[in-house]
Amino acid sequence: MQQYFLNQKLEEKIYFDPLQSHHIKNVMRMKKGSVIKAVDPDEHSALYTIDYEDHQVIGKLKEMLPEEKSAIEIILLMALIKKDKWDFCIQKACECSAYTILPFVSERCVVQLDEKKEKKLIRWQKIASEACEQSKQNHLCEIKEPVFFSKALQVDADLKLIAYENADLQAHNLAAVLNNAQNVKRVAVMIGPEGGFSDHEIESALKSGFTCVSLGKSILRAETAAISALSMLKYHYEILGEVYGSNK
Ligand code: SAH
């Protein structure tokens, strides 16, 4: 079933924006009576039946859906990487339930902040929105404006992790770190660019309260590291959390 994020609250009758209307009418070719899921800005969701009113696509409320709040917010602090990999990374990170993505530029980033960042941000948010709709999540992952590394270190989270390929798997074990951290509601995980982090950056992160973690013995590409880290956090908080109760 298709999902759409609305700009309005859920009401008996809803209107879709022009892009969504085009998608419903011309791409999906939905007939009157087709059912879709709509999510409002407060993350309330409901099923709607599609109808056409003077060529305008509308939705008629069919059934409210239960609340779906995530127990954990995972913030992905992601170094800017080359365009196609970046787009792929946003899409997959959203599928893996990243709550927010904060792009940053560090010493070894090839991609730099530029003038066109507003246009880029709109494009990135569109990729995120489509990925969250496609993966049927009520939370729309927000892509923040890119910042410099030092600013990204100031993220507000209960647990702050930095994935470091030179970290020893035993000494910097992610499972141990997650098991030892109690009452975590917001966790941030930082992934470096293609060239990795400098020693100096790792030191600054540690001073800012980050914990170094290994993602395993093999060196992963930045985008793989992001997806891998998010999957591991998802496993811990969502899958194990479901079995053993909150956070474990
Ligand atoms: N240039 C480095 C690799 C950088 S990989 C080299 O070739 O040695 C890009 C980013 O992915 C790293 O900064 C780190 O955040 C993450 N990463 C990749 N593999 C990792 C691993 N095994 N453990 C932890 N982080 C990893």
Features:
5-stranded mixed sheet; 12 strands; alpha/beta; Alpha/beta knot; binds S-adenosyl-L-homocysteine; 24% strand; 7 helices; 2 domains; 7-stranded parallel sheet; single chain; 248 residues; Ribosomal Protein L25, Chain P
Write the layout of secondary structure elements.
Blueprint: E1 3-5, E2 13-15, H1 18-27, E3 35-39, E4 45-53, E5 56-64, E6 73-79, H2 83-95, E7 100-105, H3 117-134, E8 142-143, E9 147-148, H4 149-152, E10 159-163, H5 174-180, E11 186-191, H6 199-207, E12 211-213, H7 222-244
Parallel strand pairs: 1-3, 6-7, 6-11, 7-8, 7-9, 10-11, 10-12
Antiparallel strand pairs: 2-5, 3-4, 4-5
The structure holds S-adenosyl-L-homocysteine (SAH).
S-adenosyl-L-homocysteine (SAH) binds at residues 163-165, 167, 191-192, 195-197, 214-216, 219-220, 222, 225.
Shape: globular
CATH class of the largest domain, named: Alpha Beta
Ends distance: 31 Å
Taking all residues together, what is the mean pLDDT?
Answer: 94
Question: What's the helix count?
Answer: 7
Assigned CATH superfamily of the largest domain: SPOUT methyltransferase, trefoil knot domain
Radius of gyration from CA coordinates: 20 Å
Q: What hetero molecules are in the model?
A: S-adenosyl-L-homocysteine
Number of domains: 2
**How would you characterize the largest beta sheet?**
7 strands, parallel
Q: Helix content range of the residues, please?
A: 25-40%
Relative strand content: 15-25%
- What would you say the CATH architecture of the largest domain is? 3-Layer(aba) Sandwich
Q: What is the chain-wise order of helices and strands?
A: EEHEEEEHEHEEHEHEHEH
Question: What are the segments in which pLDDT stays under 50 over at least 5 consecutive residues?
Answer: none
CATH topology of the largest domain: Alpha/beta knot
Structural category is alpha/beta
Total beta-strand segments: 12
